[in-house]
Structures are given as C-alpha cells and as structure tokens.
Amino acid sequence: MAKGFVTRQVRWSDAAEQLKAIRYTVFVEEQHVPEEEELDEYDAKCMHFLCFDKENTNTPVGCARVIDNGKIGRVAVYKEYRGKGVGVELMLACTRYSVEVLQKTPKLDAQLSALTFYEKLGFVAHGQEFMDAGIPHKHMTYALSSFISSTPSNDDHSSSEHKATDSSFSQHTRHNGDNVTPIRQPVIGYPDVTAQLSDTLSTSRGTLYLCCPELLINVFNADNTHSALSAFFKSHNRNQLQLILDVNTSENLPTEGLLSLAKRLPSRVTIRTLTDETVRFDSVKLLADHHEWVATLENTQIIAHRRRLSDHQFQMAKEHFERMWEHESEDNPNFREVRI
C-alpha cells in the first residue's frame, strides 16, 4: 500500500456521488471529455475503488473501476495528489481484483501520456493508436501473470475507458514489441513440480524474488528443492533470497527446509509478511534470473508453469515485487524467534 493512503472497494449504489465528483473534475473539467460520455451503463454493474488519504478518510482523492471482463478504467486522481502514489495504490488494487476475484487478465485503454506509468506497473501496449473522447489511446494488457492468459481479447473496444495520468513515474521505459513470452506446458504433481523448481534454482544467480502462500511453502522443503537452494547460496556469496509470506506467525510452518536455511543464513535470506491480514496469495511466484516460475493448487493437485522473460518483462516483474516489498509487506516480529 502507498504510505499515507488506503483503498476501498465500493459499489456505485453506495458511492456514486463521491465517484462522480472525482471523475467530473478530472475528465470533464480538466480533460474536456463530454459529460454525456463520462457515465455509462457499466458503472452500476462493476466494482469501483476509492483511495483515501489516511489523515482524512471521509474524502476520497482518487478512483478507478474494474468491469467484469477484467478491464480497468476511469482511473482518476485529483491534481494535488498526483505524483504521491495514489495512482499506484489504485492500480495495484484493481489488478489484484481482476486476477484474484474475477480471474481475468487485467487490461485497460491508456492515454498515450500515461503509457510509461502503466508499463512500470506491468502492462504492455499493443495494437494501433485510437481516439477515445477526443484523446489518443492504446490498448494495454497485464503481462506478468503467467498462470492466466496473456493474450489480449477482442472486446477491448467494449467501453470508453479514458484515463487520468498520475505522474508517480517519470522514467521512460521501452518494451520489446507486443508479444508476451509464451507459457510452456505445465507440469503436474509434487515430484515433477519440485523437479522443475530445482532445475530453475540450479541455473539461477543473483537475487531470488519469491511470494509464497502458507499452503505451498512445502515445495521448498522437498529434498531436491532444499539441495538446489543450498547449492544456490554456496555457488556465489552474493546470491540472496527475498521472500514475502502471506502468514503472520511461524507457529504452523515447518521449521525444516526453507526456514532452517533462513536461520543459518540470516544475511542472505530476508522474509517479510503481508501487511493486510485479509490478503492471501493464491500461488507461489518466483522470479529467478529472467525466469518466472508459478505454482498453484487446482482441485488439490499442484500445477506449475515456467517461462523465460525478456529483459523488459523481468525488470517490470522485479519492480512490481519491489513495490509490494516496500508498500505491502513488513518485517514481522513473529519470525524473529527463528532468526529470519
């Protein structure tokens, strides 16, 4: 979460006046979008998000919405709050809702002036430039969720989704074309999954970035995985692991394997936990030397995917993890007893 701000899910029936106030100021008054085009039939049906300053939780400072096909839109932030992370806070909430609740690939139509902002959040532009409410746009699709489809759907023109720019990021980013690296055939079952994970670890160097739910931490405690992880640390004294867990206590976690390794190598393994106790990871996600490895449970069966990332894709995924590390996780005293 962005420091100083909190985002809430709301319905149009409960927060229409607050949502309309922000959107009217940003889109109609600032960007001269025709008022009759600003509201549409999706407002009453989709999920909306309001971002509040923690010092004044009665007045929202930004908003966004997600319609049922995973399309994010109407991202608007009051001018005086731009560049403070409000747009990032809203986009993280919308992206998570699209993936975890709707189980859809997040997508959006971005104003050309905001392309860099959305690229930094893991979205990739595709297709031709087009006009929406008199403003040039491009379609964008979230390219970092390898457990869901990365192929843009054909219904991107389904609604007018003009955007406001939040200038939190100012560095220009390049992307390597419109194609997303294809996902390889998944492996199924504990032995094959841990074998693929071990292979991924054995060819990695540098820093491993890992998000892991409590239910799947045992994949790192298998003998072959533990051996590969130990070899990873022995191969170079600068190799490290940053791990975000979705649990707040170490009581129910196995003390062997990953946690015992963390106890032996406290300067090489750093573990934090999510700040929001209601949020749970639905899969393991590992970034390892330009590879993305994802494992999830489907009907009690564990399934894993691995794919090679381009330099740009890896950089975006790394920055996404770092934002979560900085803004959505924290050092947890419950883990200090096992010296993590």
What report would you give on this structure?
The protein has 2 domains: 5-142, Aminopeptidase (3-Layer(aba) Sandwich), CATH 3.40.630.30; 187-338, Endonuclease Chain A (Endonuclease, Chain A), CATH 3.30.870.10. The strands form 2 sheets. Strands 8-14-13-12-9-10-11-15 form an 8-stranded mixed β-sheet, with helices on both faces. The protein has a 7-stranded mixed β-sheet with strand order 1-2-3-4-5-7-6, sandwiched between helices. It is of the alpha+beta class. It has helices at 12-30, 35-38, 86-101, 115-120, 190-202, 223-235, 258-264, 311-327, and strands at 5-10, 47-53, 56-66, 71-77, 107-111, 123-132, 135-142, 187-188, 207-212, 240-245, 269-274, 283-288, 291-298, 301-308, 329-330. Helix 5 packs parallel to helix 6.
Can you describe this structure in just a few lines?
By secondary structure, the protein is an alpha+beta fold.
Helix/strand layout:
Elements: E1 5-10, H1 12-30, H2 35-38, E2 47-53, E3 56-66, E4 71-77, H3 86-101, E5 107-111, H4 115-120, E6 123-132, E7 135-142, E8 187-188, H5 190-202, E9 207-212, H6 223-235, E10 240-245, H7 258-264, E11 269-274, E12 283-288, E13 291-298, E14 301-308, H8 311-327, E15 329-330
Parallel strand pairs: 4-5, 9-10, 10-11
Antiparallel strand pairs: 1-2, 2-3, 3-4, 5-7, 6-7, 8-14, 9-12, 11-15, 12-13, 13-14
Helix pairs in contact: 5-6
